[in-house]
Amino acid sequence: MTTEERFRHVIGWFRVNMPVAETELKHGDPYQLMVATILSAQCTDKRVNLTTPAFYARYPTVESLAAARREDVFELVRSCSYPNNKTQHLINASRKIVGDFDGRLPQEVEQLMTVPGIGRKTANVIAAVAFKKQTLAVDTHVFRVSARIGLTVGARNPLEAEKQLTHYIPKDLHSIAHHWLILHGRYVCQARKPKCPECGLKEFCLYYKDQPQ
């Protein structure tokens, strides 16, 4: 099977079996999505969704967060991983947005990446989910799943994986493809114990092909 054929089969399967795929981070606007996405780094969406309601209530706008005291923000996010770093990222990000972007998140990936705490993956998520841009974020799930299936080959980092994926996946599917792969990685192609027997992609998967049957 060629790479092009593998992509075609995988995309076809997802189109039929996962026609709707969206973020599981709860948010109501781009600002809230930024907060949730920053908190989600190396932390489960479930934990983030338990944390953000109180956060959004205390800091309903980017301006209110920009004026927040560090210790108060820390108390709200301390149950998430790396709360010290995330506290600083959230405050610095909000101040940057207020100071340089008139309190509105920029919509383009390159501009989003100038905001403290927002790397390429987070910028791609915000651009895709909040602003409907066709970007493809590569997190640990996407990186693992795409390599196992054989959609990426020899990618040494998320950027290399992103370039390979976006080369073969049609532009108008970049955003949903991120959600296809992340949800598949979260619930089926899990890191420690992938559920290969029940996976609808096993017919096209290099990882499954190499497993003793």
Query: What summary fits the major beta sheet?
Result: none
Query: Shape, please?
Result: elongated
Q: What's the average pLDDT?
A: 95
**Could you give me the name of the CATH homologous superfamily of the largest domain?**
Hypothetical protein, domain 2
Terminal-residue CA separation: 20 Å
The radius of gyration over CA amounts to 18 Å
SSE order, one letter for each helix or strand: HHHHHHHHHHHH
Strand content: under 5%
Domain count: the total is 2
The helix tally amounts to 12
Which structural category fits the helices and strands?
A: mainly alpha
Characterise this structure.
It is a single chain. The chain has 213 residues and is an all-alpha fold. The chain folds into two domains: 3-21 and 136-209, Endonuclease Iii, domain 2, CATH 1.10.1670; 30-131, Hypothetical protein, domain 2 (Endonuclease III, domain 1). It starts with a helix and ends with a helix. It has twelve helices and no strands.
Quick structural gist:
The protein has 213 residues and is mainly alpha-helical. It is built from twelve helices and no strands.
